[in-house]
Design a protein that fits this description.
The protein is an alpha/beta fold. The protein folds into 2 domains: 40 residues; 255 residues, Aminopeptidase, CATH 3.40.630. The chain contains 8 helices and 8 strands. An 8-stranded mixed β-sheet has the order 1-2-4-3-5-8-6-7, sandwiched between helices. Helix 2 crosses helix 4, helix 2 packs across helix 8 and helix 4 packs across helix 8. The chain is globular.
Length: 307
């Protein structure tokens, strides 16, 4: 009889204790799993060679599938959303394997689009290198050379160098408002500048900004800048790919690099042609082989600057 009473007394303990143990062990397991996830430096990466077909495909996706990319009307705003999603997908774990960070740009009529940033893992405490391109366009233009070709080329270069271990911090940045005059360009640059300052942890060495645009005009790259020192550094011996040393850009030159001078950092423009004129249709697709060749030169130039 006493044994029966003991078993009866243990039953409530088991009924209460077992669920508590299960919950506690589950919580501990989840905590340990998250700790392991935080310690993982980066998702798996995949280096992809730059082929004319893949670069042309990305270009077509930006121009034809995303459509117009500006803030002037609903179609343009939808195009910006589609372009941002495409860029995030191309850089993310399912493709190049970067950990992608997004920061909302100033809104337009309650809608905002992200500044998209991916860092090449590694890099010491050297001067940061920011490769920047805009994924919008001006209303009324085709948006090919300003700047779908720049976006496609930078995506290709980021994929090609994904497994490189750099000696300096390297960032790939895609901004939503650089070409559309109706967009909040100034506010977007202020957000981008804060992002740069945050990555430099308040240090004075905030790095150099390299603008990538108009990449379909020829097979080779041309560098230009308002800073002779920045231009000399971009074209110095040691780069894996030759870059034509252009004259220091005049103050009146109209290109995105002129806009980014507001960041108060050395700015260099890498492109294959002059900036798109205000009255230029900008609808003609480049030769795929030339566009791919320029993208390969961009990747080779980048390797020479970061190894």
């Amino acid at each position: 009889m006493s044994a029966t009473r003991k078993r009866v007394k243990w039953i409530p303990v088991i009924l209460v204790g077992l669920p508590v143990w299960l919950v506690a062990s589950t919580l501990v397991g989840l905590w340990l799993w998250h700790q392991g996830s935080d310690e993982a430096e980066e998702p798996a990466k995949f280096s992809t060679s730059i082929e004319a077909g893949s670069v042309a495909s990305d270009l077509r996706k930006l121009v034809d599938l995303a459509g117009p990319r500006h803030t002037a009307d609903d179609d343009g705003r939808l195009g910006l959303t589609r372009a941002a999603a495409m860029i995030e997908g191309a850089l993310g774990p399912s493709n190049a394997g970067y950990r992608v960070r997004t920061v909302a740009a100033p809104p337009v009529d309650g809608k905002s689009w992200p500044l998209i940033v991916a860092r090449l893992p590694g890099g010491g405490q050297g001067e940061p290198l920011w490769l920047v391109t805009g994924y919008d366009q001006r209303p009324g233009g085709g948006g090919v050379e300003a700047n779908a070709t720049g976006v496609a080329a930078l995506l290709a270069a980021a994929g090609e160098v994904a497994l490189v271990e750099p000696r300096r911090p390297v960032y790939f940045a895609f901004l939503p408002h650089l070409y559309d005059p109706r967009a909040p360009v100034t506010g977007t640059l202020e957000d981008f500048k804060r992002l740069i300052d945050g990555e430099s942890e308040g240090g004075s060495d905030r790095g150099t900004v390299v603008v990538i645009e108009s990449m379909g005009g020829a097979r080779s790259l041309v560098a230009s800048s308002r800073s002779s020192a920045a231009l000399a550094a971009a074209t110095a011996d040691g780069a894996a790919a030759p870059v034509e040393f252009a004259a220091v850009a005049p103050e009146g030159a109209r290109d995105v690099a002129a806009t980014l001078v507001a960041l108060e950092l050395p700015v260099v423009r890498l492109a294959t042609r002059a900036a798109v004129a205000a009255d230029e249709a900008d609808e003609e697709f480049p030769d795929p082989e030339a566009h791919a060749a320029a993208s390969r030169e961009l990747a080779a130039w980048l390797r020479g600057r970061i190894r």
